[in-house]
Write the structure tokens for this entry.
Amino acid sequence: MFGCNTPDNNVKSSILGTSPLMSQNIEKKVDSLLSLMTLEEKVGQMNQYNGFWDLTGPTPKDGAAAKKYEHLRKGWVGSMLNVRGVKNVRAVQKIAVEESRLGIPLIIGFDVIHGYKTMSPIPLAESASWDMEAIQKSSEIAALEASAAGINWTFAPMIDISRDARWGRVMEGAGEDPFLGAKIAEARVKGFQGEDLSASHTIAACAKHFAGYGFSEAGKDYNTVDIGTSTLNNIVFPPFRAATKSGVRTFMNSFNELNGIPATGNKMLQRDILKGDWQFNGFIVSDWGSIKEMINHGYTKDGSSAAETAVNAGSDMDMESYLYIKNLSSLVKEGKVEEQVIDDAVRRILRVKYELGLFDDPYKYCNYDREKEVIGSKANHEAVLDMAKKSIVLLKNNRKLLPLKKEGQKIALIGALANDKNSPLGSWRIAADDNTAVSVFEAMQQYDKNSLVYAKGADVSLGETGFVTETKINTTDKSEFKEAIDVAKSSDVVVMVLGEIGFQSGEARSRTELGLPGVQQELLEEVYKVNQNIVLVLNNGRPLTITWADKHIPAIVEAWHLGSQSGHAIAQVLYGDYNPSGKLPMSFPRNVGQIPIYYNYKNTGRPVEPNPDIVFWSHYSDQKNTPLYAFGHGLSYTSFTYENVIVNKVNSSSYSPEIKVSVEITNSGDVAGKEVVQLYIRDLFASVTRPVKELKGFEIISLKPGETKTVNFELNSETLGFYDNNGEWLIESGEFEVFVGGSSDNTIKSNFDLE
Ligand code: BGC
């Protein structure tokens, strides 16, 4: 009855662009270098420090900086993070290469999450494009700029699946779906690492956070994670497997504990699965201080046992816990850690350094001319603008309020975010210059045949906000409401830009309420009283609960935090110079009580209302079960009709299934447009219950008005199976449904059987 196949067997860590001969050479070089190293020098390679002082200034004499400097000279530092810019990177590299005994170059890490200085949209926004070519290109641009600034390793892609919009880090990921998440992981790894890791414009990628971080209880950052093997294998792992298959060179573990064991000290995750089953031969870096945090978790009692546990579990590099450098040498001498464990970790780290070409030229990323030429170039800005337009999702457009007319209109532009040049840069933009994004106000002024009047209405936050400071939201000051209401009264159309400021999502930015922050909801309702022709443009890093707006506001545009070119992208969409085609990568809940809410849920024993008067079925008594906007939802200025789903069973055996599905899509509106055609399946009866829908294919097509295209999909042994509770990959015979459409909640269907 079962066809069995394990896609994991096919997962093999490969080095892009590295031939077997090159790999053999690298292995030889690694071994010979390793044989020259003292135990302390080996441990040094496993030690990563944060950037520490004005690197080009005088040598520090005492304190933590002096110690780090001394360690660099002794060859006790393998990597640094947050050192950036050619001048600074050169300075640290010079100490490592020219002053330490063996001169081993540093690998320089940085959080290049959505661009380096020229910011592209936050990753959740880019995911809404469903456009793998564009996402790959965006990572290429990020690598191009970062590598020109001396960086050769990014702590990205972040590929944690999450079903919880309360968790601020959903802005960094690809949303809720493992299939889409896996494709995006692959595109990003390819984008950062390119075809040739040793080229000076490519950098090593890092798949993070391994694993389960997106399932932090109650959406509270760093919180406990307790999930079963089915969720782990079928939902959490797919993007990580895909990253490994694509040759990602590093992994980062996560802050959370998983089923009672902190990920950093989790042998099953790191040694058995990643380095064992998946044959990953790059290295694993801890998250910031996560080795030490195992003491707080109540898992290890002191620094020495934390280091012992982490290294034995497979964490190769210590980011800022200082525990490897303090303890590993003595742990080896005491026999608590075998030297071959250290050797394995060091081999992995050196391997990646060789692959990057750092031993051939440690300063290869340190070219002043290239730095000047590449960072912030016109071409990079054009690329991020293109990505920003592709990331926008049209959530609602009643009465065809959008696109706006280009002439003779009086337009009121309201909202602090409409005139904000900082927020669109989003969270994780350490190298970007503050206030450098194009605002909506600036961009809309270019459509100068309309009259445009701006009124702030209200501040979103009070005072300065930043990466490490808590954001203080304005919940009281409504003194500027009146001006906005007056402007709205005398306008044809009101564009309101509302939502979250850039630092309201991201790490440690969990929220328990997901409405428009502060007084913005009230502002929206007050303006609505005087003018109902409102276009609501959302700026945000996560799904928001905008149930009132959905009920009353005719047009809603999801514009996330779109990066440096944000304003231009939004203006072009509002005026119809770009027809939006983005689709949500994450469900929008109606209220926080619905969370976790996701399209690929299980059916339960009581899924549907048997009779309006009967209470005993799986539901809420005060809210619908459905989300406000479903996964995959997104409108266009044209419309598409789906017809004729045809299933062709080329091979219906569950041992080697091959099912072809075709569907016809017609542009039934009057402008050209792009559509993301989505294919879902349901395995109706299985030995472990399956979700009501699972995404298994998608394709972007462009259609002129009246044009019809046929899209073909194929389902096979990679897409028709699932992992059971023992981690076995199964493809079971029986009945399947197949759904095709422009959203997970708007599909037409057919079915087939596997024998
Ligand atoms: C984050 C990581 C990040 C690291 C280095 C941590 O707090 O969880 O995602 O890469 O810091 O900045």
Summary: DSSP finds 20 helices and 26 strands in the chain. The chain has three domains: 20-110+152-364, 383-594, 640-754.
